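Possible regression after last week's pipeline update?

I re-ran a chain I had predicted before the update to compare outputs. Posting the input and the new output here so someone can diff against the archived version. Not blocking, just want to make sure nothing changed silently.
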Amino acid sequence: MTKELPKAYIEDSRIITENSDDARELYNMGRFGTLLEDGRVQLSILETLYLVEKKKMSPATVLNRELSFDQLMRKFRRKERDFFIRYCVFRDLRNRGYIVKTALKFGADFRVYDRGVKPGEDHAKWIVYPSHESDALTWYEFAAKNRVAHSTKKRLLIGVVDDEGDVSYWEIRWLRP
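New output (post-update):
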């Protein structure tokens, strides 16, 4: 007998799981989403897409219509510029065993916790900025990103995505000679 996958529903601009043990297990085991008071889990669009791709969650439902991975990808790409670049970095970090959360309050895309560390147990190790390999970055923009990382006591990680969706990382740290 196949285990039924947890379901998620797109409500307005939020993605909420059903109230089930399987949905809460996604949160408890991998820190996907935010646990709500009513036992459901609120997921980001990146987390939702990743869980659907990995077959850890049923395709998300909008108005009782399930959306496949490809349909979700198209939907989210229309909503957000550079979504595919961000997703490639998110997926790669998750596949490597890291917990990835938003870092909007730091002015970055993601904050990443070292392997084995869960949010709330310790601080994130990196803030991450995804970028396409053809993107240009001015020295001013680079310095601003580095300042954000330094002021939040995190390392700066630039995730560079090529045309095939492969990711290379560049870690930048302050160094005192």
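Follow-up from reviewer: compared with the archived run. The radius of gyration is 17 Å. Marking as no regression found.
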